[in-house]
Amino acid sequence: MTIEIGIVLTIVLLMLLCLIKEIARPDIILSVTLLILLFLGVVEPAGALNGFMNEGMWTVGLLFIVAGAVQQNQLLHSMVLKGLGTGKGPRRSVMQMMFPIASLSAFLNNTPIVVIFAPIIRRWCERKGIAPSKFLMPLSFAAIFGGTLTLIGTSTNLIVHGFMLDRGLEGFSMFQLAIVGLPACLIGIIYMSTFGYKLLPNRQAELSYAAPANEPKAANTAKKAGFESYFSIIVLVSMVLMAAFEVLSMFEAALAASAVLILTRVVTLTKMVRSVQFEVLLLIAAAIGIGTAMEQSGTASYLAEHLVSLSSGWGVVGALIVIFLLTSIFTEVITNNAAAVLMFPVAFATAQQLGADPTGFFVAIAIAASASFATPIGYQTNLIIYRPGGYRFTDYIKVGMPLNVLYLVVTVGIVSFVWL
């Protein structure tokens, strides 16, 4: 181990501790970490700024604008509420709620979906005399499931995709992740509406949950949806189709969709600024810079060598399991984006040393970074429903750990068959 590698490892470990202790916002912690690495000369200025020029980061920003136009759509709300209302018993209602939520999450940002539907579902539970704790965790998990179905399902997928493009590799196609994500999603929904439902606490929330001021009323049905509701969906579908059939790159399709929505005033400049989560973009850019520092300093190769040595008796599949587990552990205690960025260079170096197709490792990272089920702090949607659902930390462990194991088995099995 060189002095430079030792410095990087020490700083990254301190960063992880700060993230776990939550001494500041994640984007602030990562930005300060990047500045320290830059000041110490571990990463060159061009490398530190690499994240701000990353195509994946800019694509995420543009998708916030598109999501801002679609997320208040009355048609989507009616679809979810209809599923809840027709369920024959609570378990059936859980399943019928999770399918449309996962479908929406495949194309929209997870966080606003949960923010919008959490108070609606909570009030539905109160009217039916059902504990909200039986529905809010499935809501969050369904949003996470859906994020693994498409390239644009979550910012984590786009970060990994951007990293692949930066290294001259072919990035993910629109639905490539669904090879793993769809079976995992179906298994996850079945689990949450059967065994997982039994493990969910039957507990009322400790605090009342105030719905957002702009939350639409359930009475606003599809018939009352205006021009903007239909037009925003048309733009979203067009964007997805252009990217899926490679008419445009994902970045170009998102840019075109955002421009159309702004020019037609479906999205005003004020609404655009409110839609973009700038702290998420800063976190992504800083995390990419830290990942560059890990590569330039040789830290990624150093960790890869030890990982290969650790799994030497198990071959490529063993290395894949270790990569998935490490990513999953990181995402439970820090953030999904930071976990993906930290593990990408390690996975890339590991695949190179083993002479394996790195695509399978990248798919595993994208899935594992999103599979945050065992703690409320690993994924923002889990935090959103933590107190409104009256959950305790142990509830996530009890319900989420079996789900993490299922995702590990499904991912490793399919990736090994398709890519390795």
UniProtKB/TrEMBL annotation:
Keywords: Membrane, Repeat, Transmembrane, Transmembrane helix, Transport. GO terms for biological process: transmembrane transport. It comes from the Bacteria. GO terms for cellular component: plasma membrane. The chain crosses the membrane at residues 6-24, 29-50, 56-76, 97-121, 141-160, 172-192, 230-263, 275-294, 306-326, 338-355, 361-379, 399-419. It is found in: Membrane. InterPro entries: Cit_transptr-like_dom (IPR004680), DASS-Related_Transporters (IPR051679). It is a multi-pass membrane protein. Residues 18-366 form the Citrate transporter-like domain. This is Anion transporter. It comes from Alkalicoccus daliensis. The lineage of its organism: Bacteria, Bacillati, Bacillota, Bacilli, Bacillales.
